[in-house]
What does this fold into?
Amino acid sequence: MTAISQVAYDVVALDRPDAAPDGPPVAYARITLDAPRRRNALSLALLDELRAALDRAAHDDVRAVVLAASGSAFCSGADLTEALADGMSVSARRLAEVLRDLLALPKPVVARVHGPVRAGGIGLVAACDVAISADQITYAFTEARLALAPAVISLAVLPRMTPRAASRTFLTGAQFTAAEAADWGLVTKAVPLDDLDAEVDAVLAGLAAGDPQGLAATKALLNADTLARFDAQVDDVVTSSADLFASPRARAAMEKLLAR
It folds into this structure.
């Protein structure tokens, strides 16, 4: 394993019972958010390392990418301590770049979601091509409760979710289940935690049967409209996000939350 401080990267051979014995080996890249003490919060350092890992996967001889996480949570969203200290101008831009990298990567990305996901972390899940979630976990867009908005991640989330579900979850900030996330299109499938790896492996087996050129061209076709909308709106949502994080109301809300 090659590990860096907050993201780990592995190349894993795919077990293919149907493959010819003398056929070329097929592998996938496993990228793991690895800051469990901070519930994999999206610090600038983690986002930078995640971008580097995605770039590596783009150039490695791998058929697909699995995005996973260590610890009890998949991702808790923005690093609020860092946001209070340094603002979000740079981190909001970097999050947008990570989301675009996931959408534009010429290889399919499968999210393995084992633990709770909040706010910005849901953007990572939405930007993946396939998302398999443990069924006992919860999701929540908590931004509005902190005088914020899910601005940057909306570029990845809104093309996935039904409009009514997005309105309810964005505005209330209430938790929702993995089953609801699947019903609303945010994740592909919710399964028992014990079945999570088997379900991810089944997706990877299907991807292994695809030709790399065909997979890349098909993903580009699927994400063309999302990327066009993304590029048209990204500057506005990055500015909006940074402004909201810098506002007195949001700073007071974040300070109150961190003081608990």
